[in-house]
Design a protein that fits this description.
The complex is a heterodimer of chains A (438) and B (372).
Chain A: H1 2-23, E1 35-36, E2 38-46, E3 49-57, E4 73-80, H2 83-93, E5 97-98, E6 105-109, H3 110-115, H4 118-125, E7 135-139, H5 143-149, H6 159-166, H7 179-187, E8 194-200, H8 209-218, H9 222-248, E9 258-267, E10 270-276, H10 278-287, E11 293-299, E12 302-313, E13 318-324, E14 327-342, H11 348-351, H12 353-377, H13 387-390, H14 397-403, H15 405-408, E15 413-422, E16 428-429, H16 433-437
Helix pairs in contact in A: 4-7, 8-9, 10-12
Chain B: H1 9-26, H2 31-36, H3 40-62, H4 70-112, H5 119-136, H6 138-166, H7 180-185, H8 187-191, H9 199-202, H10 210-238, H11 250-257, H12 262-297, H13 304-318, H14 324-371
Helix pairs in contact in B: 1-6, 1-10, 1-12, 3-10, 3-14, 4-5, 4-12, 4-13, 4-14, 5-12, 5-13, 6-10, 6-12, 12-13
Classes of the chains: A alpha/beta (438), B mainly alpha (372).
Amino acid sequence: MKRKRSVKWSIVCLSVLVTAFCLSGCYSVEEVDTKAYPIAIAIDKIGEKIELGVQFGKVIKGAEGGTPTEEGNIVIKYEGLSIYDAFEKLNNRTSKQLSYAQLKAIILSEEFAREGILPLIYSLVNSYNVYPNLYVMVSAGSAVRYLDEQKIWLETTPSKFYELFYDKAYRSFLNVMTISEIAFSQISSQGEIVIPYITYVQNEKGNNDSQDKKEESEGGNGEKDSGGEQAENNIKLDSETKKEFNDNQVLSVTPSKSEITRLAVFKDGKMLDYLEGEEIEAYGLIKGHYFKANISVPVEEDFSRLINIYIQNKVKPIKKVKIVDGVPHIFIDINVEVTKISSVSAPEYLRDIPKAEELIERYIKKICMELVTNTKYVYNSDILGFGEYAKSDFKTYKELEEFDWKKNYKNAEFEINVKAETFTNYLVLDPNYEVQEH
Amino acid sequence: MKRSTVFGHWEGTFIIVNSILLKYAFFFLNTFPGIAGSAGWMVAVYICIVFLVAVLIIQKLYQYAGQADLMDIAHATFGNAGKYILGFGLILCFLFNSGTNLIYFAESFKNSLLTDSSTKMMIIFLILVAFFLAMKGLDSIARVHAFFVPISLIATGIIAFFLMTEGSIQNIFPIFGTGLPNVFKLGHFALSGFFEFILITLITPYMKTYSEFSKTLKLTYVFVSAATLILSLVYIIAVPYPANTNILSVIMMTPDYMTFHHIPQELFTVFSIFYCICTALYISIHIYVCTLIFSKMFYINKTTPLTICFSVVLLGITQIPVDMNMNKDMYEIGLSFLWVVGLIVPIIVLACNNIKIKRLQKEDKHEKKEKR
């Protein structure tokens, strides 16, 4: 009897072991060191072909507390007739097998984005290999160049760089879009998409790099010299920054020559234009993304007199849509919390907080109204996603489809109410106050 | 006859709850928005009301049936013919249901956890683990259920909470979705999710008393209906229609679509282990019940060879669909009739049994009167 039991148990244990080994994939010869892990991919359009740039993160020596000795950035480029063709060629070219499990960001060139990104996004969302929370960005000029310029020295795990860079908590302009969010919003007609738009910081000559690139592509051979000069400048700047960092032995941020100060506007998956400046502030405030960031408010349209405020959306803006006689009426209630106010050029507002609040409310209302008017007439694209709120005005999907929100959005009428409340906690900074008192 | 295997109402409840809710966690939640769009939660309300009526009727009818299981009742009511028809019918339904669902489970694991592994290998190993569990008998199956299913329920609750925070309440509009008539016209497809409820009529003899059985019924109803309502609503809020009709593995893939903080993201990976265990338990109870029904039909005492046979048959069924489209078609065919087997057949059998008992009682009384 005892023997029988022990036989049974050994069979059970053996089968559990076999199962465990097989499920964990240990039968496979694929080990971590036989795979290469891209952390970002860039897609450019060159004529009829696609240029694919793949960035591999390299865990750097001395990353754990020591000084970095080499750059953790390798970019491999390849051209193909389609993205999949380029992927395949790239896979054949590299010794290791490409695994996209660590992929964090996908950067698309403006030219590619203008032709439509939805087929790519849908195929990536349905892919086995790629995780759906992948950040998407549009780059002015070449997207592969953006990857080239990223110097990921400082993070121990390179893929963390994109998480830290694009998913910051304190932000005013950054509208993080993942491929799943884009797919969901497009499949479910939840409004149009807005994606971060990468531009390049000004070089020593005062020109914008992206403008240079544009000129390069438009011009002939003579433009190459300016590009080469600029590359030299970049290298010079790089070596200086690196030296400085190495000397100080303190590394806190990753130097990057690219920045996101614009948001690309899309309609039906194709890029139309971009938002910048006040439009981005208004976009953040209406969407409810605005979190602990600064706005400079001009006093009565006089840009030489500014009050600087530190604000955030106190609560998510209340948005309501009512359809009256086939015309959408959109009501937006924005409630912002002002935590700091400072001004040198208009100190009278610091002594009269209600007056400052009124000014802030007027300013926010103005920029928001300008944005919604632009979305209506200029872009004709519901980038603020009011269509989502219009659904509550219909009883069935049939009624919603018959109404055709996208067609009727240009007839929409807007009403915006702004409430600014100040919670200063003695942080009203008036530089002239003491002088005047004495 | 005194049985050696006896368990309480919690074990019984968790067997049924796991069998019904595991499908929800993987793929069944797609059915609700598939039927009525954003009004999918109304389908959940409708089927929960129908389910309540069915539960109350079964509870009432079982008062006269004592501790007998459905096979014994069918035998007593319709004779051998009734027993064979019901037995073969149930075995076919269980094998068909578990076969199509098993492919979905394996495909979900492939999508979310083991992207490089073969689906067929996963099916083989799940059946292997389920076979060992089924071989050990209902006693061990019930106790393993009572340990792992509550953990999985808590895990599901945590995931649902995080999904809720990422969703938008606007996704439940238009309020009537694709139309209110769809809720009633096509609601029976969602009702087929309660097919495994029939298990309760097959494990009745293993419960100590009628009150245990009654408690199991009530607890099962509470858990299943609460989960149906909450999960369907959360899913519709988290993922907008029609994107939510296409997600293969709801509980394992939807968190991937969201951008959560690191801690919940790590937790979701840990939870997937419990879902794997629950899948093995789901398959094991199906294999065991097929064995039980067959042994009852032909009075077989030694069930281990039968367990091997049914495991092999189940493996064979999973090899029938050549692709996921064919499996989806088979699964939809199942949805169109399984609700009848799961809820209507037990009611008919129990009602006929009651009529027969009452008729016999009347005849007895009549005979006694005549004797007097």
